[in-house]
Task: structure prediction
Amino acid sequence: MRKSIATVSVSGTLTEKLDAIAAAGFDGVEIFENDLLVCPLPPEEIRARAADLGLSIDLYQPFRDFEAVPADLLARNLRRAEHKFRTMERLGADLLLVCSNVSPEAIGDDELAASQLRLLAERAAEHGIRIAYEALAWGRHVNEYLHAWRLVRLADHPNLGTCLDSFHILSRGSDPIGIEAIPGEKIFFLQLADAPLLAMDVLQWSRHYRCFPGQGNFDVAGLVRHVLAAGYTGPLSLEVFNDHFRQAGTARTARDGMRSLIALEDTLYGAAHPAVPTGFAFAELAHPELEDAGALGGVLAALGFQRTGTHPTKPVELWEQGGARLLLNATGGDPALVAIGLDSPDPGAAVKHAESLLSPVLPRERAPREARLDAVAAPDGTEIFFCGTDWLDDFRPSGPVAGEITRIDHVALTQPVHYFDEAELFYRTVLGLRPQESLELPDPYGLLRSKAMSAAEGAVRMVINLAQVGTRDLPWQHVALACDDVVAVARRLRAGHPELLLPIPANYYDDLEARYDNVDPELRELGVLYDRDAHGEFLHLYTVTVGRVFFELVQRAGGYQGYGAGNAPIRLSVQHARPH
Ligand SMILES: O=C(O)c1ccc(O)c(O)c1
Ligand SMILES: [Mg+2]
Result:
């Protein structure tokens, strides 16, 4: 299907927007009036620029507060419309979006509204222009899409149709099944936006929190199915008002919008993800070139990891315990998590799929006998490797290392605020992870927003955290290691090891013991954190931070599904209290 985007959805000047929108592969644009008003170029030049870029101007918008007004106001509104028509002729646009009247002067009279819309359509027809009438969710009298359609039907003019906008329909909880009753040729335009579920005024929600399909909680694909079933053949057009998108990189947001539409089409055509990862192959940590991997090696050795192999051509060591594998890459930089290896049932298909979703595939250098490893860049630059089974052979590992740690449980990455939605869409679509809980947690110097995602019944879990701004901004990352016996590790490390994140405040344990019966008193002694959910229990423990990275040991009992999120504020406070 043709793909469009409203210029309001991305940052920049109008010319920057058009360049980025074309570069991302869109077929057309909706020109938002404000973008035109602030543009120094005359409409003819904007038209030529769009044409040079291969973009059609699919819609001009919005024309506000037109219908259902007293006679004197109608005359003024028609004069306003004539000006828009002339601008559109210069722009080469032939579809005008009219959104439902929000003014207190609007009259709640369907006959009047329809007759005035008909008049507008007659005037538009003289210019070869068509009108797409949209119900704003907060319209004074018309705020339901079926009401807008009733007025269009009543007005009965070939140059008048309706514009459907997924946000206005789904934010009100309207059932989109009714779309199928609208003849496809009377749906002049389709605008798509998703949004997180928020209990707030619908206008504020729309103007600040819309996001691309797949980044929020609406069933946008389900709505599009109804629109296609009605016989609509126009473009899928993104229309997003979002405070963060307005600050984010223009090209990057345009590409993210395109990724969202490609993924939406995949959903519509019922294309299953070709290679959802089945586990963590490894986590790769960069570190300064030091004997025994320095402080990082010290923490890992204390946790019971051993170096079991070395890469034949690169300064990379394999450290193992149970099924947990860490690669230590002596890049010279501060310790940081730089790559994640995922067990993939079909690495080639996974990379092709990632590429189809516009993820940059990373070039790899490898010696002739080394395993082929395909990687793409996640939005924050973390390299994501799709691993088969042969990569491990390169390291000639010396054999299994027994210990309490069994595998990588999850990896947590921190994203800047204006790329948080992009990261979520990437992990959902490129890796096929499903969103789990979304949380806001108090930090002594801010509020931590966090989203957990998982696949293969928890075999792969990722947590994306929002980097905090304006406070002590610590872009921490962490690797959580599944462990059979957190208490045993804590006992061992308490005996003179400085690697554990301590002390945990006594107030925490006082509260814990009030909340739950039978809390093991040893948890307090050892500084082990504890949580429970409907399924089971969770014991966990953190190490100190080395560079940007810290480790967590987690013990899930009885099918516990969470991440101990309620304890994150405790962890954050202790981390902030320690010198870095
Ligand atoms: O927020 C608005 O006013 C507005 C304007 C035009 C639209 O198409 C829309 O969905 C919302
Ligand atoms: Mg709209």
User: Anything to note?
Assistant: The mean pLDDT is 94. The domain at 274-574 is CATH 3.10.180.10 (2,3-Dihydroxybiphenyl 1,2-Dioxygenase; domain 1). The CA atoms of residues 131 and 511 lie 62 Å apart.
